[in-house]
Design brief:
This protein has about 290 residues and is α+β, with helices and mostly antiparallel strands. The protein has a single domain, classed as Ribosomal Protein S5, domain 2, CATH 3.30.230.120. Helix content is about 35%, strand content about 30%. It has 8 helices and 13 strands. Strands 1, 2, 3, 4, 5, 6, 7, 12 and 13 form a 9-stranded mixed sheet that branches. It has a 4-stranded antiparallel sheet with strand order 9-10-8-11. β6 and β7 form a beta hairpin. α1 packs parallel to α2, α1 packs across α3 and α6 packs antiparallel against α7. The longest helix is centred in the C-terminal third of the chain and has 20 residues. The protein starts with a strand and ends in a 6-residue tail after the last strand. About 50% of the residues are buried.
């Protein structure tokens, strides 16, 4: 079996910039990667195509799209996805699954594709399936990543903030469908207006504290944050920490003051991952174009 890993990615704020070419389409904004994420293992010579998510068979259109793009329709293999963050709560799991699967397939089948091309396949899979618009770019880079130009690695451009591997705590309150938000014109008008504004403010003053502050501002001004998520954010702030809600998922993430989140549900945590996606066998990393 051949393994690859892609980190979970939490977006603090974003704005969508569409393009007829899905490689160039995507979002700008900022988010960070976690040491937790998705590990993809490939087993060849099986009787049919099987995708498993934490040992359970699953229909995963984004991953299926990647497989068919790289290997053709109905290849006989098993993709075993091990994930230590929840699916559907704003951790970029679909992007991490697509990216780790692409890396693992490349290694297992000795495909002559560079890292940028693999990442482009994963990014387009997200865009066409409306499961994400910018997670893959962040997951390739690792760390705290400002996406300044949308799109897959190559057309897309990122800047990485200089940060240590800080501890992030979170509590999951509920799921949010990325596709349902992306197709809501009223919501997306607010998202794009506020997202573009706070992006400019972060580029002028790049730093983790400013990112956290602008993420909360974005969540509140767009109306995406729920009342119970806002209660959790304010509870963290009362303890001297900073918090906001993941985009897109009803998950409150905190930098400092995370202990109080236990009042709202089960708390989990992870450090920020400085490393991006990689083949575990080879130690391959994806190098993105950075300013």
């Amino acid at each position: 079996m051949t393994d690859a890993f892609a980190p979970a990615h939490i977006t603090g704020f974003f704005a969508v910039r569409p393009d007829p070419d899905p490689i160039k389409a995507g979002s700008v904004g900022c988010g960070f990667c976690l040491e937790k994420g998705v590990t993809a293992s490939i087993k060849q010579d099986t009787e049919e195509l099987v995708i498993k998510f934490n040992n359970e068979p699953i229909k995963f259109p984004t991953v299926e799209w990647v497989i068919e793009k790289l290997l053709g329709q109905k290849p006989k293999l098993t993709v075993d996805l091990k994930c230590d963050v929840p699916l559907g709560f704003g951790f970029g799991v679909s992007g991490a699954a697509a990216l780790s699967s692409a890396f693992a397939i490349r290694s297992a089948f000795d495909l002559e594709m560079d890292m940028n091309r693999l990442a482009a396949v994963a990014h387009v899979a997200e865009v066409v399936n409306r499961t994400g618009m910018g997670d893959v770019a962040g997951q390739c880079a690792g760390g705290v990543v400002i996406r300044t130009v949308p799109g897959a690695p190559g057309p897309g451009t990122v800047e990485k903030l200089a940060v240590d591997s800080q501890q992030i705590s979170w509590v999951c309150l509920g799921e949010i469908s990325t596709a349902s938000v992306l197709k809501d014109e009223t919501t997306m008008h607010a998202v794009n207006k506020v997202g573009e504004r706070v992006l400019k403010l972060l580029v002028k003053d790049p730093g983790v504290e400013n990112f956290m502050s602008l993420s909360k501002e974005f969540a509140v001004e767009t109306g995406l944050i729920s009342l119970r998520a806002l209660d959790a954010v304010e509870a963290v702030e009362a303890q001297g920490g900073m918090a906001s809600m993941a985009m897109l998922g009803e998950t409150v993430f905190a930098l400092g003051g995370g202990d109080v989140l236990s009042r709202f549900g089960k708390v989990d945590s992870s450090r920020i991952s400085i490393k991006g996606a990689r083949c575990l066998k080879e130690g391959d990393y994806l190098t993105l174009s950075q300013r």
